Each structure stands twice: as structure tokens, then as C-alpha cells.
Amino acid sequence: MAVDIKIPALGESITSGIIAAWHVKEGDFVEKDQVIFELETDKITSEGLAESAGKISLKAEEGDEVEIGQVVAVIDDSAAAPAASGKTEEKAEVSKEEAKAEPAPAKTDKATPDETQSPAVRRLAAETGIDPAKVDGSGKGGRVTKGDMLAAGEKPAAAPAPSASTPAAPATAPASDEGRTSRKKLTPLRKKIAERLVAATNEAALLTTFNEVDMSAVMNLRKQHQEKFVERYGVKLGFMSFFVKAVVNALQAVPDLNTQLDGDYVIQNHFYDIGVAVGSDKGLMVPVVRDCDEKNFATIEQDIIGYAKAARSGKIKLEDISGGVFTISNGGIYGSMLSTPLLNMPQTGILGLHNITERAVVINGEIVARPMMYLALSYDHRVVDGKGAVTFLVKVKEAIEDPTKLLFGV
């Protein structure tokens, strides 16, 4: 009986995707629930599973755009699994027969090839005069294979040196375009990221305000409690949980940043689901930590670590990246000193964090070295006034420089 493998429904807004990779080959025997392909959409990358065990026939190729519900493979569940026993012994016997069948290398006055080379390589070296030591090996550990020797024999011989009566060739030839550039289609995710960023610049009245924050208090707290924190919760106390809590505190003080514009209406959010931007091989993703006003530092750290692992392994779910009210982007982990982050539409604010560097600052009339970080808040000026944006950023700064404020929500 044939079992059709179809592209599953992934969400109301997702209608198609691209086969990013097949994990099986045509005619392979697959087990039930085995991962057989990766599907990349404009929002997430998901895995397709075998619905039954059997022999698989592929109906789409890597890179093909496929619709939801389209059949991409068929499994013949009447096919029996291949026998696993005897393969190793059979392979060993074949190798012995092949070794016996190799003719002895002919005697020659040329240099004797390395005895560590295979019989086939030594035979070709004797017949062609090609020295294996001068051939680039593609085998394990750089060993020269029979294919390498055959390919070397097919290369054209070097041109003879020009004689006195032959005009010399130009010293340099025009460079060929072949191999200098490559062309590939945007992935659905990268295309969607591009569309959203262009929309942010075209639709919103973007403005960015800056401040700087002294990280001494947070760093001292982490150093003081890190060991016990890890022992109790199994995760490290990072900087991000402090900033998530500081953002919640600031959103409560400045509700204009917890809104989104919908035509002629402003939607006021009364919950605190904070998106945390995560970089992955597939592109930038923003998983959302839910109800941050109700969670403690440990739960926030656990959520962030779990989402980051899922995003980087391509296992993020659609519901994980939907519904955030505000975004935090940490370019500092890549060494960024300052940036103007773009909005994650339809949100009206995004906080950019940057690297921490020791700088000379004046405190109580004295010049001291402190670990400082620049903060950048980009916001939609159609909804948020400058006073509200500056107040929001000051609230974040005050909460980080005096984390006890977070305990009392002031």
C-alpha cells in the first residue's frame, strides 16, 4: 500500500515553503516517524516525518517550492526492511576479491610509488608515469584514490616553452567571470525578513534615542549569586533577564511603548510578552517570552535558552515567534558598539543592547573606570512622543544601575 507524504498545515498565514533538505535518498527504507525532510517557510523551518515504515520514493527535489497539502514523497509500506546481517562480511569478501584481481605493477625504471598507496593507484602510476606524490588526494587523510589518478591523467599537458621565433604570450590573460560570482534565490525566511524591515522603514516614523548604562551593579550581583543560582535552577544568571525585567518595568511606566497601530486605531496591550532576537544560520528570529511580568529571573533565563537552542537547530515553532509586544536585540554579543535597531512591526518599540566596555566616567566629581553599555531605543513616532521614549529609556537605565528597583517595581 502506498502512503502519501504531504506538506502539513503550519498556520493560517503559511501557504507554501521550500524543501530545504532531504535526509533520505530515492529508494531508501525509512522507519515510522523518521525525519525525512526539512521545510523552510517565511516564518519557521519544520521537519517532515515518515508516516509509516517502508521504501520511499521522492516526488520533489531540494530547492523546490511546494504548497501546503502537496505530495512530496510516497512510501511503499509493503516493502520489507533490508537484512542487516552479513553486510560487513560480504563487504570484506568483496574487498579481498578486488585486491586479488588487481594485476601486479609492471616493472619500470620510473620511481617506485609509495607502497602505502592502493594497488590500483600503484598500477596507474606505473602505466602512466604520474607520480601520486604530486597528485592532490581526495581520500581520507589526503590519500590519493584511483579517481584522483584518472583525473590527473586527463589534465592537458603543459604548453611547451616558446621558442625564439614564437612570440611570447601576454603575461596576464583577461580574468574569467566563471567562479567569481554565484547566484542563489532568497530563502522564504530571508525574503520575509527583508519585507518586514523595508516595511518598518517605509511605514513607521522611525526615531532612535540613546543612553548609556553602568553595568557594575548587575555584574556584581551576578558574580555574587551565580554559583547558587546555577546550583538551584540549572542555568546561568545572564544579563538578558535583567533587561527583560527592566523593560517590563519601563512599559508599565510608559504604556505608549506597549501599543501597536492598526489603521486609525491604537491598540493598547495589557500583557508583557517580550521578544528576544536570536541569530541563527537561517536568519534572525524573535522568539517570545510570555508573561514576563509574572516570571522570575530563572524562568526567563530558561525560556530564552530553550528558544535559542530551538531557533539554532531549526526546531522553532510558529507559536514561539508570534504575538510579542516589544523586542530586545543584543548586538553586543557580536561586538557592536552602537546601532539604530529597526522595529519588529507592528510593535512600536525595540531596545538595542551593545557591548560592554570599560570607559572613563565622572562619578561624584571623580574620574573612574566603569563597565558601560550604550542603549538604543527605536520607536514609532506616530504613536510615541519623544518625552515618552526618553522616559522609557531612563527607566531601563535606572533599573539596571539599581536592580533593587525591579523588586519593588519602581
UniProtKB/TrEMBL annotation:
The Gene Ontology terms for molecular function here are: dihydrolipoyllysine-residue succinyltransferase activity
Question: Which InterPro entries does the protein's record reference?
Answer: 2-oxoacid_dehydrogenase (IPR050537), 2-oxoacid_DH_actylTfrase (IPR001078), Biotin_lipoyl (IPR000089), CAT-like_dom_sf (IPR023213), E3-bd_dom_sf (IPR036625), PSBD (IPR004167), Single_hybrid_motif (IPR011053), SucB (IPR006255)
- CDD domains named in the record: lipoyl_domain
Instruction: List GO terms (cellular component aspect).
Output: cytosol; oxoglutarate dehydrogenase complex
Q: Which pathway is this protein engaged in?
A: Amino-acid degradation; L-lysine degradation via saccharopine pathway; glutaryl-CoA from L-lysine: step 6/6
Q: Which cofactor does it need?
A: (R)-lipoate
- Its catalytic activity? N(6)-[(R)-dihydrolipoyl]-L-lysyl-[protein] + succinyl-CoA = N(6)-[(R)-S(8)-succinyldihydrolipoyl]-L-lysyl-[protein] + CoA
Role summary: E2 component of the 2-oxoglutarate dehydrogenase (OGDH) complex which catalyzes the second step in the conversion of 2-oxoglutarate to succinyl-CoA and CO(2).
Family label: Belongs to the 2-oxoacid dehydrogenase family.
Q: What is this protein called?
A: Dihydrolipoyllysine-residue succinyltransferase component of 2-oxoglutarate dehydrogenase complex
